[in-house]
Amino acid sequence: MSVGANPGRYEAEVAVIGGGLVGLAVALGLQDQGLTVSIIDEGDIAIRASRGNFGLVWVQGKGDTCPAYARLSRLSARLWGPFAEQLTASTGVDVQLSQIGGLFICLTEQELEQRRLMLDAMRDEHNGDYPYEVLNHEQLKAKVPEIGPTVAGATWGPEDGHVNPLLLLRAMAQRFIANGGRLLTSGPVTRVEPQQGRFRVHCGDQQFEADKVVLAAGLGNRDLAPQLGLSAPVVPNRGQVLIAERVQHFLDYPTGHVRQTGEGTIQCGDSKEDVGLDSGTTTDVVATIARRAITMFPLLKKVRLIRSWGALRVMTPDGYPIYQQSQQYPGAFLVSCHSGVTLAAAHAGPIAEWIATGIADPSLSLEEFHAERFSL
Amino acid sequence: MLNDSAFKRLPSNAAETISFRVEGQVVTARAGESVAAAVLAAGLGPTRTTAVSTSPRAPYCMMGVCFECLMVIDGQANTQGCMIPVVEGMEVGFQHGARAVMEESV
Amino acid sequence: MSTVQYDLAVVGAGPAGMAAAIESAHRGLNVVVIDEQPRAGGQIYRQVGQPVLQDKRILGPEYYYGADLVAEFSAAKIEVLHSATVWEIGARHLCLSLEGSSRRISFSRLLLATGAQERPVPFPGWTTPGVMTCGAAQIMLKSSGLAPSEPLVIAGSGPLLLLIACQLQRAGVSIAAVLDTTPSRHYVEALRELPGALRGWRYLLKGCKLLMELRSAGVKRLSGVQQLRAEGGSDGKLARVRFRHKDREQTLACSTLLVHQGVVPNVQLTRSLGAEHRWDELQQCWHPCLDSGGETSVGGVFVAGDSAGIGGALVAELQGKLAAIEIASRLGDTGQQTQNTEAHDQDTQKLQQAIAQQLAIRPFLDRLYRPAAVFLRPADETLVCRCEEVTAGDIRSVAKNGCAGPNQAKAFSRAGMGPCQGRMCGLTVSQLMAEVHNAPVSEVGYYNIRSPIKPVTLGELASMEPELESELEPKLESEFVEQAKA
Asked: Whose CA is closest to C179, among C223, C137, C209?
C-alpha cells in the first residue's frame, strides 16, 4: 500500500526508518539539531510495539545488570518533564505525563524479598545514588487504600511515572510535521543501500536519499541492520494488555501491572511470551492477568474489560538497547530498545545529538550498547 | 408520571405486570421486556451522561450494538438496559459519567 | 474439564441459525446454539413464539411466518443457551458469559449467524436522546408492544423506512412526516438494475403497496430531503428536526426521530477471527469472504444469513440450511454420513437457486437506497464515534497528521476504543480515511477487532477455569523465529 505517497525520489539530510515511538522521538531531536528529516513508516497494519505498550515512564529496577542502562533510564526520566512541556506547548496535545512515583506490587513475601535484594544491590552499584523504598502491606495500604488484603507489599520508586503513549505518538507526529518533517507511510523498507557516503532507502517503487540513515524499525531492524554493517539480533516477546472501562479516579500511582490512565480507563498487564509474531491474545493469559489485577485491587471485580491486545516487545538477547553507528558505513545508526516510552526523552535529546554530531556524551557510555556484546 | 416523550403501550396480549424502581421512582413494566424499553415507556430520560463530556444520551438501537443504554442495574454499573429483562424489585439508576469503581447498593 | 465437544456450535438464533441448527440436528450432528436474547427469533422474528401485539395486522404476515420456524427449533434435539453472550471465538472454541459466569466450549465446526445491524447514521444531533433507529422501533413493537412517543418523524432511506412507517401507522401512531433522504438521481441510476428488479417483482409490488398504504393514510412524505439535523431542548431530549426540502429550510417539532440508512452485516465476530473480508463498493459495507458452501478463510468457520451479506430473513433461512448441509457433509465420517454426492448436490443446487431468486432484487435496492454521501462521509462537526465523542473533523485531522489507516486513527483519536468496539464508528472512520488519502476503502481497511467482542467483567475472566492444555490451534512457525534460533 502506498497511501499518502507518490512514486519517485526524495531527499533529506536524515532518513529515519520507522515512525513509532523510537523513530519519532529521534526524528524530533534531529530536527532540534537543525537537520531535515524524513521518516519512512510501514503504515497502518505494521506490528507496532508503539501502540501496544503500557505507557510507563519507569526507572526502578531497570538495568540491574547494566549500570549504563540504569543511568540512561534515570536521565531520560529527568528529561521527560521538559520534553512533555515542549510537546504540549507546540501541539496543544496534553500527553498526560505524571511523574509522582510508582509502585511495583509484590503479591508474595518471597517476591518482595527478591526485589528488595535486587534494588539493594543496585543501590550499592550506584554508590548509594539509587532512590527506592520497600513497603510492607501496611505501608502500601497507607499509600493505596484500595490494595487487596493478600498483597505482601511493593517497592516504591519516586522517579517513576506514566504517560499516555498514544497521545505521545500523536503529539510527536504533529510536531514533526509542523517542523517541516516528512512522514511517509509508504510501506515496509526492503533495502538500504550505502552509496558513496550517502544512503539510498528503497521502499516499494520509491527511493529516498539521505546523508544519514537511522534504523528505528523495531523488529524490522533485524533484516535491515546487516545491510549497513550493523547487527540487530532482536526477537519478539509478547506482552498481553487489557483495558477495562472508564472508572472514577481512584489510583494515583502507576504500578507495574495495573494503572489508571488519564481517561480513567484501567490498564492491566502483562505477560512475557515467546510466540513469534503473534500479536493476539489468549484466554488463559487474559484470565491470569485479570486474576492478578483483582488480587491487587479487589474492587475491580465488577469492572468490565473492553479491549485487549498482544504487543510484541523488541527484545535483544540481554534485554538492553542497541545504540551503534556503523563502522563500515559511517552515518548509518541503529537504535533499538523495548522501553520506547521511558527513553523517548533521551532519544529526543542526547541520543539525537549523538546521531547528529557523531559524538556521544561520555556519560551515556554508549559503547556499552554495541551489538558486539552479544557475541562475547 | 407519563410525559410527552413516553412510548405508548399498544393493546397487547396479557402478561404479568412487574414493578421496579428507576432513579428511585416506581415504574411498571410488562413481564419479559427489557429495562430500556420499560424506561422509555415511562418517559424517563436522558438515561445517561457521557464520561467524556457529560452529554445526555438515551437508548438508540435497542439490540445491544450501540451501548448508549448503559445504566446501573442492581448495583452493576455500565450495564446495557436493552439486554436485561426487568425483574420484580429491580433497582435501576442512570449512568452519570464514568462509573464508580464499586457501586453502593441503592 | 469445563469444555464439552460439540460437532457444531451456532452463534445466533435468528432464521439462519435456527434453520442451520434444525438441519444439522436432522443429520445427527451434536449441535449447540448460543444466543444473546432470552428467546429464539433473532431480530426479525423477535418474540414471535409469544407475540405481544394483539392486532396481527400491525406487523403483518411476514413476521408471524417466523412462528413455525421458532416452534420447529424449540422442538428439535438441539442444546440452546439463551441470554448467553459470546465474547471470544476461535476456530475450535468460544468463550461465553451466562448468568454472571464465563465458560469456554469447544466444537469441530462453527457457524456464525449473527445477522445485521443498522448502518450507523451520523448526522448533526444524532446522539440526542429521542433519536433512535427504525430497527429499534420495530424491536419495541415486537418485544414490548410499545410505539414511539409523538410527535414522531421518520427519516432516512430504504425498505425498512416504508415498512416501519406503515406498521406504526396501522398501530394508530400519528406520524408527522416521513423524510426520505434518497437522492433523486438514484431513481435513475437504479434503472440500470431493472432486470433484477423485475425478477424480484414481488418485492417491487410489496414496496409499491407500502407506499400506497402510506399515501392513502395521509402520511406526509417528503422526498430528496437533505441537511438533516436533530436538536435537543433544555431538558437534553429531542425537541425538533431540521432539514432542507426543495430548497426550503424546514423544522418539525418531534420527541422521537427514527432514522434508517439500511442494514449492514455484523462482522465483529468474523473480524475478531482474522477472517478475510472484502469491501462491497455497491453496498458500501464489508462482507466476510466465503466460498460457495459459506466457509470463511478460517477453516471450519462458516457464516450464514445477513452477517454474510444482506439478503433478508427468507434468504437467511435458506443459507442456514445450506451451510448445515455443507458442514455435515464436510465433517465426513464424524456424525452421520447421510448423503450420497448426487442427492447432496441436488439439495444444495435447489437451495442456491432459491437464494439467487430471492437476491435478484438486491442490486436494484442497493443502487436505489445507497446512503447519501453525507451519511457515509459526514461534515466535520458531526460526531462519528459516539462512545468517545470523536468528530469527523477529528478523524480527518489525524488522517492528515500521520495516520494511514483506521488503526492509527484509533490510536491517535480514541475513535473505536469505547464499549461498542467500533460498531457505530468503524464504517465511517474507514470512509473518512479513504476520503483524506484519496484511496479506495478496500485499501484503507478496518479496525483490528479482538476479544473481548462484548465487555466482560475482570472478575468473570479471573474465575475462568484454566485449560489443561494450551490452545490446540496450530501456530505458524515464522521464518523470523527460525532465524532467532539460528
From this structure: C223
